[in-house]
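User: I'm new to structure prediction. If I give you an amino acid sequence, what do you actually give back? Let's try with this one:
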Amino acid sequence: MYAPTVWAKSPRRFFFIRSKREVFMMQQTKNRWLIVLAAIGIHISIGSVYAWSVLTKPIMQAMVFSLKEVTWTFSLAILFLGTSAGFLGTYVEKYGPRRSGLISMCFFVSGLLGTAYALTQHSLLLLYLFYGVIGGIGLGTGYITPVSTLVKWFPNNRGLATGLAIMGFGFASLVAGPLMQILIAKYGLVENFVILACIYAVVMTASALYLEPPKQETAAGKGQFKAKMPEHVQYSVKEAMHTWQFYALWWIFFTNITCGIGLLAVASPMAQEVIGMSPIAAASMVGIIGLLNGGGRIVWSTISDYIGRANTYLAFFVIEIVAFYLLGGVNESFMFQLLVFIIITCYGGGFSCMPAYLSDLFGTKQLSAIHGRILTAWGLAGIAGPLLLSVIYERTHSYSFTLYFFSACFVVSLLLAAVLKLKGKTA
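Assistant: Good question. You get back a string of structure tokens that encode the predicted 3D arrangement of the chain. For your 427 residues, that looks like this:
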């Protein structure tokens, strides 16, 4: 029973004092689906980094730099995404998603504005500093900011919750790519970055200010917020990093991203060289890849809520072993595209299922920090994948050997995933 409401009177107005429980329940005004929308707002903003290829040629023409020099900007951004996520995950847990979201906005927007300045100065070093380093820190902080919060709002559907947010990161290029092309054509390259900075500042600020974890009583209570995981399965980041499961997941994540991002880097030229696809058709294929990269994140993460994270990763690696092996010998357009699309869904799904897998094993106590440490694999894979593929291609003049090598890498990951399924429980 609620304590009775106490009414009081002042000279100007009537007011009432409610019981502590009534006040607490009134504070639970946040809609968890709007929390999801706020998370998507942050991810769809920082996910515009995936549209970097749209900027490559305009920057090359404006600054007279080589393709390799401009591409390194993207690689640096992904490297610092992983590095900053690894080191700032503890900060996110300590200060909460609102403050860390605003920090992410400040770094990311500063990176865009600084990039505009670098272009006016024709400075490659400043381009690396602002877009690669400063912008990359904004990427890493923003990527992990909503994850732990969403898992706490959806304890019984962790895959769905994290998949919705991370889906935004995958779909971002579909929005940012055309938008960048329009802005560059209408206003110019420098102005494009300034306008984007203003847009993303508004979206990320509004999203960060709404983000908030559920109150402790609700999170531990009955109904939709009741978690299935035992209370004692709650690891700190230090404790998690002293388990073999953490390093097994790190390697699994690294392998999936290295091979996937390597394929993404050459999907268009490989389609043109291997099966004779026209540039327009190859560009259309890349657009579909963007859709499936985002779509795979929500589909696979939702499936993982029903079949379990361990079984989902086993499915990823069985599919990718076969798909990469077949792709190495295919010379027919339909089969080539089908195999690429299947691989990309698994690539995207690997991102969205990882936070839920980590919460299954280590709990939600310091999920952002643990997830951040795992994301260091992404930073290294962003360099290793394209570099590995280019080195092998230069020596063999064939994509086939690289694809067979990727297939073999997934055999190792499949074995690790099987061990995790059989002996991976931490408590």
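You can read the tokens as a compact description of the fold. Here is one thing that stands out. The radius of gyration is 23 Å.
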